[in-house]
Amino acid sequence: MDSNGTEQEKDIMLYPGLSVELPSEHEYTQTLIAQKLLTPLAPVAKTVKGEAKTKEQKDDGR
Prior knowledge:
There is one protein chain. The protein contains two helices and no strands. By secondary structure, the chain is mostly helical. The chain has one domain (about 1-60).
C-alpha cells in the first residue's frame, strides 16, 4: 500500500517449482489457480512446542 492507503501493483516473476506470495483475493491470482497454472501452498502449521514445554514445567512443579 502507498501512503494514501491504496494498493500498489507489483511485477512478480514466476518460475516452475518456486514459491511466491500473491494476494489470494486478486482476480488474476484466482484465474491462474483455476487454470491450474498456480498451486496454493498448504497453510504453515504453527508449532506448540513452547506451550508443551511450559505445561511440562508446571507438571514438574517448576
